# Entry
Amino acid sequence: MENNINQKPVTVVLVGIGGYGALYVDELLADMDNSLCRLVGVVDPAAAKSPKFDCICERGIPVYATLEAFYNHNQAELCCIAAPIQFHTPYTVYAMEHGSHVICEKPLSGCYTDGVALAALSDKTGKFIISGYQWSHNRAILSLKRDILDGKFGAVKQMRTKILWPRRESYFKRGSGWAGKRCAADGTYILDSVANNAAAHYLHNMLFLLGDRMNSAALPVSVDAELMRVNPIENFDTCAIRMHTADGAPLLFLATHATKENEDPVFIYEFEKGSVSFAAAGGHGIVAVMNDGEEISYGNPFDDQMVKVRYALRAVRDADARAELPCIVSTAVPHAQCIWAIRDVPIADTPEALLEEIPGGENGEDILRVIRPLHDAMNLAYDKCCMLSELNDAVSADLRKVLKPVMGLSVGERVGE
Ligand SMILES: NC(=O)c1ccc[n+]([C@@H]2O[C@H](COP(=O)([O-])OP(=O)(O)OC[C@H]3O[C@@H](n4cnc5c(N)ncnc54)[C@H](O)[C@@H]3O)[C@@H](O)[C@H]2O)c1
# Structure
C-alpha cells in the first residue's frame, strides 16, 4: 500500500506483543517507517517478556499493562488485538467504545454468539472489525474465490484439508497458560484446540470460499466429529471434522499436533467443472485443473501474511476500502459456529499402547507426544476423503477402537441451544 502524501499516518494501539503479536510489532514498525501508521502504544501485562520489548522501548513507544490504562492517557484510530482468545470480545468492545476500528486475531472468540453482538456494535459505532484470518486477505485465495463466485467451477462436490503440525509440551504451556483450555477462570469460553487455533485457518478457508459474497462464509448444515487428545489438556489436539453444506457436499478437515512428522497444509477442493489443489510443501501455490484441461495458477496462499494489517490501515482512511473488507466479524462466525457445535463431543484419550513420547529441549523435558498410528491414518483418511473411523485398514485398527465418533450434529440445533 502506497501512502498518499495528504494522508496522516493512522494512529494504532497493539494489544499483545509476545507470541504472534511479535509479527504485528514487525509489521507496524515497518508501516510506521513507511508513514502509513504511528504506533502510539502497546498493551501487554507481560510486555517485558516479548522479544520485541527492547525495540519498542528504543523507539519510545509507550507500554501499558491494560487497555484501560492506554485509553485513559491516549487514543488510537485502529486497535490491533493479538491477545489470547478469551480477550478477543471484551477488548474489541472496549476499543470500539473508545473510538477505535479493530483488527482482532482469529478465531472470532470462544463463543459464536459474540459475533452477533460484535456485528451489531460495529453497525452502531460505525467502526469496522476485521477478523485476522490471513488467508482470507491473500491475493491467491481472493482470486480463487472470485472465480468460484463467478461460476467458473460450478457447484462444490467435496473439499478436504489435512494439517499435521507436531507441537511439544512447551506449546501447550506457553504464555499465560490458556492453551488447550475450554474456559477461562471466569467462565469465558476459549475452546482452544487445533481446530480453533493453529489450524483454524484451513477449516475457515473451506467455509470462506463457499460464501455467497466476497466477505461472507458458508454455514455448514451438519457436522461429524472425532476428537482425540494425547497431551494433558482440557480440549482436543487431534481431530477429524466433516462438515456438510446445504447441498450435502462434505468438507473434511483432518488436523493434529500429535504426529512425529510435520506436514504443512494440503487441500483438494473438487467442483463440478474442475479441481483445485494446494500442497504447501510443493512450492506450486494453488493450482486449478479444469475438466477441459485448462490449468490456472492462483499463487501462494502464504504470501504476504500481514497484508491484513495494511487492509485495516487503508480502511481507516478510505470508506470504499472499508466496504470491501474481505473478512469482517460476520465472515468469521460460521467457523465459530462449527467449533461451538462440536464443543461437547467426547474426546478420546490416547491409551498408553498408542502413545510415544519423544524428549526434546535442552534437558529433554520438552516432550512431543505422538499417537503412533495417526500419521498413516490421517494420510489414508485424506486419500479416501473419509473420517478416521471409516477406515478399514489394519494400520489404523487400534486407533479406530478408541475413537468416539459423533455423526450428523445439526449445526442449527446445536447453536440454538
Ligand atoms: N493468524 C495467525 O496465524 C496466528 C498465529 C498464532 C496465534 N494467533 C492468534 O493470536 C492470539 C494470541 O496467540 P499467541 O499464540 O500469540 O498467544 P501467547 O499466549 O503466546 O501470547 C499472547 C500475548 O498476549 C499477551 N497477553 C496475555 N494476556 C493479555 C491481556 N490480558 N492483555 C493484553 N495482552 C495479553 C501475552 O503476554 C503475550 O504477549 C490468539 O488469538 C491466536 O489464535 C494467530
